[in-house]
């Protein structure tokens, strides 16, 4: 049985505690695509491919709950070997919400073939470095219909709910972790500063 959004909102307003999946349904269905143009102007010089710009316009602009102030492009990081790397996109809110998004194609070098062994090892090292630094990494293929993540049609991404929901769920979970951490620290501080104890 599918409950309508007004009913879900009404139950929530009446004080009922809704399951997490219901809350996600509310968040996913009750949004408007955001105006991405100011963000694109600000970051235009750092978008390295037309696929990156299309990803911003046709995917990130449709992610419920996204805060564009937390999105950066060509994010500089140091890998586990000490080398300087750049990640296509990151969404970061404090230390609890850290999403890295790479637009990965089959043929990044333009040779008409996939990665060489050395390129594959380098790609794995790059991924492992991001994960080791606490990033949740998404690899998004710009041109592969069978991926189930995005489809590419006449040079434009079409929104696929799988990726927008997945990113939105990570944002939601990251914010919940942050709130939980703040509450836990508050409780620790209150118990530490209880009468008879020094802070």
Please give a structural write-up.
By secondary structure, the protein is of the alpha+beta class. It is 42% helix and 18% strand. The strands form 2 sheets. It has a 4-stranded mixed beta sheet, sandwiched between helices. A hairpin with a 5-residue loop joins strand 1 (71-78) and strand 2. The chain starts with a helix and ends in a 7-residue tail after the last helix. Mean pLDDT is 67; it is low at 1-5, 20-30, 144-160 and 178-195. It comes from Pseudomonas fluorescens. This is DUF559 domain-containing protein.
What is the structural class?
alpha+beta
Number of separate structural domains: 2
Uncertain residue ranges? 1-5, 20-30, 144-160, 178-195
Largest sheet: 4 strands, mixed
Oligomer: single chain
Distance between the termini: 53 Å
Shape category: globular
Radius of gyration: 20 Å
| Total E-strand runs | 6
Sequence of secondary-structure elements? HHHHEEEHEEEH
SS strand fraction: 15-25%
Mean pLDDT: 67
Order of adjacent strands in the largest pleated sheet: 1-2-3-4
Count of helix runs: 6
What fraction, in percent, of the residue positions are helical?
Answer: 40-55%
Give the SSE map.
Elements: H1 5-13, H2 20-29, H3 37-43, H4 50-58, E1 71-78, E2 84-93, E3 97-103, H5 117-132, E4 136-140, E5 151-153, E6 156-158, H6 161-192
Parallel strand pairs: 3-4
Antiparallel strand pairs: 1-2, 2-3, 5-6
Give a brief rundown of this model:
The protein is of the alpha+beta class. The protein has helices at residues 5-13, 20-29, 37-43, 50-58, 117-132, 161-192, and strands at 71-78, 84-93, 97-103, 136-140, 151-153, 156-158. A four-stranded mixed sheet has the order 1-2-3-4, with helices on both faces. Strands 5-6 form a two-stranded antiparallel ribbon.
